[in-house]
Specification:
This protein is α/β, with parallel strands linked by helices and about 800 residues long. The protein contains 28 helices and 13 strands. The strands form four sheets. Strands 11-10-9-12-13 form a five-stranded mixed β-sheet. It has a four-stranded mixed β-sheet with strand order 7-6-5-8. Strands 1-4 form a two-stranded parallel ribbon. The radius of gyration is 26 Å and the shape is globular.
Length: about 800
């Protein structure tokens, strides 16, 4: 009790300090307009000789919008562009910032200089910024295997210094640890010599032309022809698909697993070089005639930006079946505007809802991944709108009233506007419209219509959950939120989660347009804030649809367990209509644990596309991993709750070496919260004693926060030591025995190893990992140590 009080006091003190800093940064792992291409072991195409070393040692921190000083080293265009002091993520920005998307907003070095970017390279004979930083990094004398110096801030939210060429010497004089690579063990000699020689030679880039095989070029031509047909129906369908694929890394069916394209709007047709229209959003007015074009992605593919979508002859045939075969009419094309993008259910209402919903369902993993790796991707405030791990399923189209009842969307559309649709209105009107009036009206409307449906046809039951049409494994998903990053995988992973969602068509479409198509990474703080707040409403919708499947008399209690605390209760009164506790479910439950029974049953009914058990985290008897294997031994860490979990990193990668065999596991820290109803002060809503670990074979996160590495025979000792953790000191002992610190002599070797293992999981899906958020565990500070000592004894 006293310990809990002390922790509360300490967290409150920290919160008061952090609140003064004010961080409203909304952004999930990937951003539009970052054109990247291959994982470190599979680089091909232009500049591959040096690019492989740059990938493994530089792009792992300098690849995305969160790259320090916007210095992207993933392609020649990036290092030739250079760096800038301008921020992409700025929590204090009152006005929209100019866009600085590589390859889009400027295409020449003079163009970038006009936008404030300065060079980091130099002609041979002159010492460039890159050369200065590499040499300074070589001089850094970190104690190998030890924690970094206390005065070195490695947080991804730190304030960056971005010295220009005439400032670099003063910068290094003032920042003794400012060399590159930043805050890690020294580079291997060969890598250092390669990079230094390249920088001293003027950072040259090969001018090789990307060659597209004839059969791939023919597929590209076929796809472009489909998108550029001139009938009204074809043009509206092309616009709809484009607005959903503008972030995609398009992979041509049957092509090389490491060649990808992206779809753009170009001023020029296929026979001429492309001239991309640099609009902020995909539904912005193109300003005149344009052509949809597929252009090859040239550069390094980062995992956090890699959202793969297969396209080719089979896909085009599916488009024809979905969109063009049905009988529907169109008299005029809808306009391009913020309002159109802010209410896509209205903009594309001429296209049958079943066609649009099935399009999303066909590739549910891809579209949910755009939420996760899309432009709303940076920082804890962006992703604390969701629980740390939850399961997602989808309402079957035949059970979705927005699909089966033409009046449903017609009546609902007026209250389904997204924040971007009202961006020109006064803030007070916007908040009233899409945060209060609209969601409350829609909740009540949807609840009434489904109650009427239940009275007529019976309550919702298992047949009303989409089964993947008997073959599609993307019908069951697990979403992870690990403090400042998120991931999504197929199937139901881990123990039975605290919450679950059922997504229907209106919810699916609005999440996409809120977090992806309608989000501007360069937008002002109001835009970022309202996007995040609206997503809170959308989360509640998914949870409420899930509750409809459970017994009516259990819904209120379960909902209350998700939103504990007086402030959460007050917010519920403001933002929620009463939970429906009268409309019966169509399911006859056989146990007194309906949530567990329902979610488990979704795995056991036909078509049984997903494992019923999780061999590490949720199993019994023969469904569990072999007790003598690494996976079986790791089961000892999956207790619910796990008092040792709160000390672990958000995402740890565990490498187990057994002779010539290497097994890799992801250890996800599932943080418990009293609720996720608020943007700030997350620490005050934490319930760390209820934290859990989910252990998964393989890797799914773009951001490894720590690596544990050991021989197979050491796994039992590791499990025992982790289970015994009750203090930061205990955790540091585990790290000393089994961890890979940033300063560990094996650091870069270990990063290469987990990258190699990720590449082996899937050649098409692999991408370069990001180590910007790799932690440096430290001893407790004096105040924390005092609290631990004072309150650790009863």
């Amino acid at each position: 009790m006293r310990r809990a009080l002390a922790v509360g006091i300490l967290n409150a003190a920290r919160t008061a300090v952090l609140a003064g800093i004010g961080a409203i940064v909304l952004l999930t792992g990937q951003t539009a307009g970052s054109h990247e291409a291959t994982a470190s072991e599979t680089v091909s195409g232009p500049h591959s000789s040096v690019q492989d070393t740059l990938n493994k040692r530089c792009v792992v921190c300098h690849g995305c919008y969160d790259a320090p000083c916007q210095l992207k080293l993933s392609s020649p265009a990036g290092w030739q562009r250079g760096a800038t002091t301008a921020k992409v993520y700025d929590s204090k920005r009152l006005e929209d910032a100019p866009t600085t998307r590589l390859g889009i907003d400027a295409t020449t070095v003079p163009g970038w200089r006009q936008k404030g970017f300065f060079p980091v390279t130099a002609d041979p004979g002159s010492t460039s910024v890159l050369e200065h930083l590499l040499k300074a990094g070589r001089r850094q004398s970190f104690k190998l295997g030890a924690a970094l110096p206390d005065d070195l801030n490695i947080s991804p939210l730190r304030r960056n210094s971005c010295p220009k060429p005439d400032e670099i010497e003063d910068y290094l004089s003032d920042h003794r640890y400012g060399g590159m690579p930043f805050g890690t063990a020294p580079l291997p000699d060969r890598d250092y010599e390669t990079l230094l020689a390249w920088a001293a030679a003027g950072s040259p880039a090969a001018n090789e032309e990307i060659r597209i095989p004839d059969h791939v070029a023919a597929s590209v031509e076929e796809i472009e022809t489909f998108f550029n047909r001139d009938t009204l129906r074809a043009r509206l369908v092309a616009r709809y698909i484009y607005e959903h694929l503008f972030l995609a890394h398009l992979h041509i069916e049957g092509d090389d697993p490491r060649r990808f394209f992206r779809i753009i709007r170009s001023r020029t047709p296929a026979e001429r070089p492309h001239e991309e229209i640099p609009s902020r959003r995909p539904f912005d007015d193109p300003g005149g005639p344009f052509f949809y074009r597929l252009i090859p992605i040239d550069g390094t593919i980062l995992h956090k930006e890699h959202i793969v979508y297969e396209i080719g002859a089979d896909r085009l045939a599916r488009y024809r079946d979905l969109f063009l075969a049905p009988d529907w009419e169109l008299d005029a094309l809808p306009p391009y505007s913020r309002e159109a993008g802010g209410n896509p259910l209205s903009t594309f209402q001429a296209i049958p809802p079943r066609s649009r919903y099935q399009f999303l369902l066909d590739d549910a993993l891809f579209f949910v991944r755009t939420f996760i790796r899309g432009p709303v991707c940076y920082g804890q405030v962006a992703v604390n709108v969701i629980q740390d791990r939850f399961w997602v399923s989808f309402l079957d189209p035949d059970a979705d009233l927005s699909v089966t009842d033409p009046s449903f969307l017609r009546d609902a559309i007026p209250v389904l506007e997204l924040p971007v649709a009202l961006s020109d209105d006064k803030l007070s009107e916007r908040l009233k419209s899409f945060l209060l009036v609209g969601p409350l009206k829609y909740q009540a409307f949807r609840q009434q219509r489904y109650a009427e449906r239940a009275a007529r046809d019976g309550g919702l039951d298992y047949s009303d959950i989409w089964d993947g049409d008997g073959t599609n494994t993307k019908a069951r998903l697990t979403i992870y939120r690990n403090f400042s990053s998120a991931s999504v995988v197929t199937g139901f992973e881990g123990a039975i989660p605290k919450t679950a969602w059922v997504i229907d068509f209106p919810l699916f479409e609005r999440i996409y347009y809120d977090l992806v198509a309608g989000f501007d990474v360069f937008g002002n703080v109001e835009h970022q804030l309202t996007t995040r707040m609206y997503m809170d409403n959308l989360r509640r919708e998914g949870e409420r649809m899930f509750l409809y499947f459970l017994p009516a008399d259990r819904r209120d209690a379960l909902h209350d367990s998700w939103y504990k605390g007086p402030l959460a209760n007050l917010l519920d009164l403001w933002k929620e209509s009463p939970i429906d506790d009268t409309t019966p479910t169509g399911i006859r439950f056989e146990t007194d644990r309906p949530k567990t029974e329902f979610l488990t049953r979704l795995l056991t009914i036909a078509p049984r596309l997903w494992p019923e058990a999780d061999p590490i985290n949720r199993c019994s008897g023969e469904t569990c991993a072999d007790a003598t294997s690494a996976a079986g031994r790791l089961r000892g860490l999956s207790d619910q709750p796990a008092p040792w979990a709160k000390f672990m990193a958000d995402v740890s990668v565990l490498v187990v070496e057994d002779g010539d065999t290497t097994d890799v596991f992801t250890i996800a820290h599932d943080m418990a919260h009293s609720n996720v109803a608020f943007i700030f002060n997350e620490d005050l809503r934490r319930e760390p004693e209820q934290d859990e670990l989910t252990i998964v074979k393989g890797q799914f996160s773009s951001y490894p926060n720590f690596i544990f590495r050991m021989k197979a025979e050491q796994v039992p000792d590791f499990v025992t030591a982790v289970r015994a953790i009750r203090s930061q000191r205990d955790y540091l002992d585990v790290i000393a025995a089994h961890g890979i610190r940033r300063t560990d002599p094996r650091f870069w070797e270990s990063i290469d190893l987990i990258q190699s293992e990720l590449n082996a999981q899937s050649a098409i899906q692999a991408g370069l990992l990001d180590i910007n958020r790799y932690t440096d565990p430290k001893p407790l500070d004096p105040i924390e140590r005092l609290f631990e000592f004072t309150f650790s004894v009863d």
